[in-house]
Amino acid sequence: MRFRRKNVEFRDPGGIAGVESDAEAQRVAHALREFRDTVHEIFDRPDAFWENQRLAVRSRLERRDPAKVTWRRSWAWASATVLLVMGLTLLLDRREPLRPDFAAGDDQQLLLDVERALDRDVPASLEPAALLPEEMFPRVRILPSP
Predict the structure, then answer these.
(1) Do 4 and 47 have their domain in common?
(2) Rounded CA separation 58/50 (Å)
(3) I want to staple 49 with a disulfide (CB 3.0 to 4.6 A). Which of 45, 59, 103, 118 is the partner?
């Protein structure tokens, strides 16, 4: 693929915009001409140069160490598996509801009440206060603490 340039010249009728003195305008114009010439040199290279570039890139791709690619893939799969297992563990964490043992009597009921109180995110006396942020910020989702 070869790029060809067109002989197009752009002129600003009022001089170079944003330049106040003639010396500065000449310096900017000279820098622009040098830049344009450099770009034209780069793109006016022969087809053999571009073919050599393609071959060099292709040979570098073929020389890649397959062990590195395999190592990266194995790390990616291991990371994905760990994340999946952790996510499933958190999503599927189902605790069995506490069932009272009626044979133990009042002591068992007291123990169940204590265990339920410990499983709560907020103590029963502060439950109305826990609803306050939800009322103040209805669009913000507050996650329970672990």
Answers:
(1) yes
(2) 12
(3) 45
